[in-house]
Design a protein that fits this description.
- The structure is a single chain.
- The protein is of the alpha+beta class and 276 residues long.
- It has two domains: 168 residues, Nucleotidyltransferase, domain 5; 78 residues.
- It has eleven helices and eight strands.
- The strands form four sheets. It has a two-stranded antiparallel sheet with strand order 1-2.
- α5 crosses α6.
- The longest helix has 21 residues.
- The N terminus and C terminus are likely disordered.
């Protein structure tokens, strides 16, 4: 149920991840009419998306276990399909759909209109615009955390002579949506009513986890000083639950957080020399 009691419709999030360069392109699909993996890939490998066809496609075990022909289809195109070698790297992106709501519902919309739901077609148009804008920023080197040499490698990778699909194909349904493993829904945003002034995080703060891992007094003592439990801080950092505004202000002052002017409830660590 939604915050106003309305019944929410679950959606499938199809995603193609390039973990080496921390990029993902996505599509929302009604689970009552799932799309063939081959059809999605032919869209994701089009010239519009710029990524093109890889030599190898790594798939999470759960999806590979639901295969009914998509791996055979990719192999017929010269693309090897196998279980992900670095599952944690893939999973970090594939399961990180917390910005999908922002990208599909809030991206470039007036603030007072963001609460109104969009039809799936319009939501996908917004999501595609968001993902392609992120890709363009990466190509231009704006607002990304990659070093110059990484950006050079990324640009070279985008011009590696890859093949593209000129138009989407529509093969027969090539996977079993009912065989896909399902995890229980996470308990998110459940503490909001308990807090006077809840402060949410829209996107994870880059390098914050690493910074706290090196904190001189340890993460547990750091949380104690901030008036937070470790679990509450972890949930906030993962964008799952809010913290009290006073706790956030303690964090902001201690670790020098600055607000991202382009995105609401998004922050970054300022470039300072920490003596750890």
């Amino acid at each position: 149920m939604g915050p106003s009691g309305e019944r929410l419709t679950p959606l499938l999030v199809y995603g193609l991840v390039v973990p080496a360069y921390r990029y993902i392109t996505r599509l929302l699909v009604d689970p009552r009419s799932p799309m063939a993996i081959g059809e999605y890939l032919s869209r994701a490998w089009s010239k519009t998306q710029k990524l093109g066809m890889p030599l190898r496609l790594e798939v999470r075990p759960g999806l590979l276990g639901a295969d009914k022909g998509f791996s055979r289809w990719t192999k017929s195109l010269g693309v090897e399909c196998s279980t992900a070698q670095n599952l944690k790297s893939i999973a970090a992106f594939a399961t990180s759909v917390k910005d999908v709501g922002f990208a599909a519902m809030d991206w470039k919309r007036p603030v007072d209109d963001c609460e109104n739901p969009l039809p799936l077609v319009e939501a996908n148009a917004a999501l595609q615009d968001y993902d392609t804008t992120v890709l363009r920023w990466m190509i231009d080197g704006h607002g990304v955390s990659m070093r110059d040499i990484e950006l050079d490698h990324f640009r070279a990778w985008l011009n590696r002579g890859q093949k593209f699909f000129d138009r989407p194909v529509a093969p027969a349904m090539d996977w079993d949506v009912d065989a896909l493993p399902r995890s229980p829904l996470p308990k998110i945003r459940q503490r909001q009513e308990e807090l006077d002034n809840p402060m949410w995080l829209e996107e994870p703060i880059e390098a914050l986890k690493e910074l706290l891992g090196m904190w001189p007094t340890g993460k547990k003592q750091f949380c104690k000083e901030m008036g937070l439990s470790v679990s509450a801080l972890n949930s906030w950092m993962s964008c799952n639950e809010p913290i009290e505004q006073s706790q956030f202000e303690n964090l902001r002052t201690t670790i020098h957080l600055e607000e991202d002017e382009d995105f609401d409830d998004s922050f970054y660590l300022t470039e300072r020399h920490y003596r750890l």
